[in-house]
Task: structure prediction
Amino acid sequence: MPPNKDKVGGVSVSNGTDITTNNNNTEPGIEQEVTPTLDTPPEEGKPKEAAGTKEMMVGDLLEVKLSGGKWTEEEIEFLVEKITDYSLDDVQLGTMLAAVKVRGMEREEVVALTRCMRDSGQVLSWPAEWRMMDKHSTGGVGDKVSLPLAPALAALGLHVPMISGRGLGHTGGTLDKLESIPGYRVPLTQQEMAAALREAGCCIVGQTADITPADRRMYAARDVTSTVNSLPLIVSSILSKKAAAGVDTLVLDIKFGRSAFMQTLDEARELAEAMVGVSAGLGLTTVALATEMSSPIGRSVGNALEVIEALECLRGAGPADLRELVVHLGGELVVAAGLAVDAEGGRRAVERALDDGSALAAFRKMIQMQGVSAELATALCGPNPDYSVLPRAAHTTPLHARTAGVVSSIDGMALAYVSLSLGAGRKRSSDPINHAVGVMLKKCVGERVGVGEAWAELHHDKPLSKALVSQAQNALVLDENGEVFPAPSRIAARFS
Result:
């Protein structure tokens, strides 16, 4: 029997098992600070509603959704309040999430849910004259785009209060990458964020307990109830946090491909259109780009290695695909801010910020505002960079091509799990991160490699097993009779 169909964000989707997930049970682009288990309720003593009234009301609402019905905004507000103050117990919360996954939600319901989740905690506010921008990615292998993008936008006079997270899965998250820089401080108060935004134009910080507490509890429950891949819950989780950060305009990087949460462009379109539609309901100006994610972005997978690559991008150099993503995503925000009349003009503005050193200067100010010493910031961002101040692995082992040919593909997900095994990611939220280890590509898609030539390097602190080396070697696919070709663009589609 085919799965039930409902409208989610105005898009007809199959609710159930249609959306393919990665092997790790994590939401796209949600780099979580929380432990993926059900939270402990607050201390006893706070007044509660009479149990009989609450149970009857919640039970009725659950029955509405389980029967395929629609919740009103007032009913959704009631449920989110009960989630936040823990008067909705874990069993009821699990039932609610499962009902949403199976039955879906109309767009108006998702807008209401997102708004209520945003308002469940602190909503940041900023001076009216500031143009508040942000970017969200559904996550990819070697995705260090935020590191050069935020300061590039800041260099153009925009303000970027980027609330990011730690990785749970194959590689580290944005905060893990930045914490490769000794002294970088993730937790900032709103006052400290405001100071960083005044001085540098951007900050990249962690989510606090005061921001979207309903989402924190819901995400923890989703992880243990197999509801992570519910489209309404994905959309509301991502957008509630962005809205709580006080941004006006958002660009979304919806990745698809063998190494992404979304496997196909059609799946990426479905998510993009749902998020753009719900954003409009919240009053956020949002544009989404669907970008290809099969091989790693750039040449590095691993925290400190990716910081170096991001710094090279900020110097106007670095991998072409990383620069392409930064320029295209940033260009959309430049146009939305009224600083360019069209996308081409927006992209040129971002390119100038990368090439003239102003984006690098903004990054330098940002990391100093977040705890990095002036001496270390100079070592990384000065005219003669010294990347030895970053963590470095004890050993580097090259991977040699078994045959000659042109690189037709590199399995990014395979290398991501190699990187995880080396210690660059975490299988549980409590696992420590090794900032030094990872994978560095010497050859990328479209380039020729000779027999016995090194196509990649493993940066590691512990001895390598034969199985891990074999797993890494198998990520490379060569066309022995192929011709060298330029790597294709990662930008596949635009949605607004």
Remarks:
- The longest helix spans residues 265-282.
